[in-house]
Specification:
Layout (H helix, E strand, L loop, with lengths): L1 E4 L10 E4 L2 H18 L2 H14 L4 H15 L4
Antiparallel strand pairs: 1-2
Length: 78
């Protein structure tokens, strides 16, 4: 099991996500982002704005995902 924070994933806080795969971490982060969006958290909304801008560039989101997965794979197990 490995741990990444919201901040490491481009978010705005130190909430920790633990999982065996990056795909599981990404899903946890997405759920957290949705909760922060619904609560109107300003810091997370700003981070989401940056992600929205990234998604406007062809292939950028796929590259972001691949880059974060490399970081996840390099982490030591908890």
């Amino acid at each position: 099991m490995k741990t990444m924070t919201c901040n490491q994933l481009g978010g705005a806080c130190e909430m920790k996500f633990q999982a065996d795969t990056f795909e599981e971490i990404a899903e946890m982060s997405k759920k957290h982002g949705t909760e922060m969006f619904l609560s109107g958290d300003a810091a997370h909304l700003a981070a989401m704005g940056a992600m929205k801008d990234l998604m406007q560039k062809p292939g950028a989101m796929q590259q972001w995902f691949a880059d974060k997965k490399v970081i996840f794979e390099a982490l030591t197990n908890d």
